[in-house]
Write a structure and sequence with these properties.
Substrate binds at residues 157-160, 226, 271-275, 279, 342. The chain is of the alpha/beta class. 40% of the residues lie in helices and 14% in strands. The radius of gyration is 23 Å and the shape is elongated. Bound molecules: nicotinamide-adenine-dinucleotide and uridine-5'-diphosphate-glucuronic acid (UGA).
Length: 451
């Protein structure tokens, strides 16, 4: 049997599904995006993009008839390849909640027929989920035939905020599964592997980029690679934060230190930025997910546990620094700059700013917070927090006793800091992302260095 993929279905229209659908349509495939969220699908059908991701609106708009959105799984019956891109949030015990993957697999099973179909798992899932999905397909399909219906693991490594460049110009494409199914995936991704597509205007090919490596593995190895990659990046950041704490105590500068170690190509400069630690939907969930996988096999993973401890300690350290300057927070006005977990996204999942605001309010502070993009979303998702949403950046500083920089948006880097601190009552700045470069007539605290 030959594989000649032309039609693709993408299940789940979140950060990963939207990017995957846009990418595959851009590579020339006929793509149907399927989501169970009626509002989300209606929005997409109207040409509105439900998340903030630079370049995504233009990429999706440019696809025209090649890309359609529906709530109807019938599109699976027509597809040669179907991607599962639904969420895998943590359950209360830290293990990944597979209910959306299970539901998606059961819905796909209902549309399996005699046509060959490759079912590709792009969601981040515990090792063994590929086999689990196959069992759901077997249990729920009228016809399931291992020779025609195969499950592949193709983990996603995109970062929010730079999702399109990460998807179009990846370092590597990891594919786990049977030889035949992987041959089919290599055929599907040929324009990406060979970089034969025309780059979208908003996302040009980086200078010097040639082509991604293709890593062919077993299902289990591909699933493990995703967790191990995120866990390694997370612990790299925690390492920088742990060393930063000691830098503060001995008078060293963490940025000089990370440059000095990162230029050793065995270490590398990236993901050594000390600050407020990681947030977002994945590093916390996936480090915990890997620890839970260890627990299932009675196998301890102390390095990962320590990486998590160091990460969440960073959020408390910021408050401790503030208390050292202000003594008490009762009745004090504290401004928070940045709510999203990182710049260039409106994603608020596990954002450090959430914990900061919550703690500040508990300690009696009046909090005014700002974000260039995420404020409307925060109004919906953080309604349980009692903070004032700032209608301008200036409003964060006006008569404030202290301001904390929680997310390093370019808008904040570009501020006239001298003018801003003039608006404050007591000029205490906790720059938890190390963005201020010039000395100011204010009390400034950074992480692992003195300004
Ligand atoms: P998300 O929460 O943004 O989107 C998930 C989407 O799936 C939602 O639109 C939801 O309505 C839809 N959905 C849920 N159940 C469904 C069903 N049965 N059928 C169809 N649609 C359904 O999630 P995300 O951030 O895109 O993450 C998806 C997966 O990819 C997760 O496993 C995550 O760990 C992984 N991942 C995420 C990123 C990232 O940067 N966000 C990067 C790499 C990998
Ligand atoms: C991360 C990984 O980088 C992606 O490869 C992966 O696909 C994704 O998780 C996922 O599985 O969802 P993402 O969370 O979108 O991507 O964003 P990152 O750029 O990795 O940043 C994560 C957090 O770490 C942010 O809060 C950021 O502020 C923080 N960070 C990052 C640091 O504190 N220091 C750094 O040096 C880098």
């Amino acid at each position: 049997k030959t594989c000649d993929p032309k039609k693709v279905a993408v299940v789940g229209a979140g950060y990963v599904g939207l990017g995957t659908a846009g990418l595959l349509a851009h590579l020339g495939y006929q793509v149907t995006g399927i989501d169970v969220d009626l509002d989300r699908v209606a929005q997409l059908q109207r040409g509105e993009v439900p998340i903030h991701e630079p370049g995504l609106d233009a990429l999706l708009a440019a696809q025209g008839e090649r890309l359609t959105w529906t709530t109807d799984y019938a599109a699976v019956a027509d597809a040669d390849v179907v991607f599962i891109c639904v969420g895998t949030p943590p359950s209360s015990d830290g293990t990944p909640d597979l209910r959306y993957v299970t539901a998606a697999a059961a819905s796909i099973a209902a549309h399996l027929d005699a046509r060959p179909l490759v079912i590709v798992n792009k969601s981040t899932v515990p090792i063994g989920t590929g086999d689990f999905v196959q069992r759901i397909l077997e249990d729920n399909a009228l016809t399931f035939d291992l020779a025609r219906h195969t499950v592949v693991s193709n983990p996603e490594f995109l970062r929010e905020g730079t999702a399109l460049a990460d998807s179009l110009y990846p370092d590597r494409i990891v594919l786990g599964g049977s030889t035949e199914a992987l041959d089919c995936m290599v055929k599907l991704y040929a324009p990406l592997i060979e970089q034969s597509f025309t780059p979208p205007p908003a996302t040009p090919r980086p200078e010097g980029f040639t082509r991604p490596a293709v890593v062919r593995t077993t299902l289990q190895s591909a699933e493990m690679i995703k967790y191990a990659a995120n866990a390694f990046l997370a612990l790299k950041i925690s390492f920088a934060n742990e060393v930063a704490g000691l830098c503060e105590r001995v008078g060293a500068d963490i940025e000089e230190v990370t440059t000095g170690i990162g230029l050793d190509t065995r270490i590398g400069l990236r993901f050594l930025q000390a600050g407020l630690g990681w947030g977002g939907s994945c590093f916390g969930k996936d480090t915990q997910g890997l620890i839970s996988a260890g627990d299932e096999h009675d196998y301890d993973m102390p390095i990962l546990r320590a990486a998590i401890d160091v990460n969440y300690r960073q959020r408390r350290v910021v408050i401790d620094k503030l208390l050292r300057h202000l003594k008490t927070l009762k009745g004090k006005k504290v401004g928070v700059l940045g709510m999203a977990f990182k710049p260039n996204t409106d994603d608020l999942r596990d954002a450090p700013a959430h914990d900061l605001i919550q703690r500040l309010v508990q300690l009696g502070a009046r909090v005014t917070a700002h974000d260039p993009i995420a404020m409307p979303r925060a109004a919906r998702e953080w309604a349980h927090l009692t903070y004032q949403a700032a209608d301008s950046i200036e409003a964060v500083f006006d008569r404030a006793d202290a301001v904390i920089i929680a997310t390093e948006w370019n808008e904040y880097r570009a501020l006239d800091w001298a003018a801003m601190t003039h608006r404050m009552r007591e000029a205490v700045i906790i720059d938890a992302r190390n963005i201020i470069r010039t000395p100011l007539a204010a009390e400034i605290e950074q992480v692992g260095r003195a300004v």
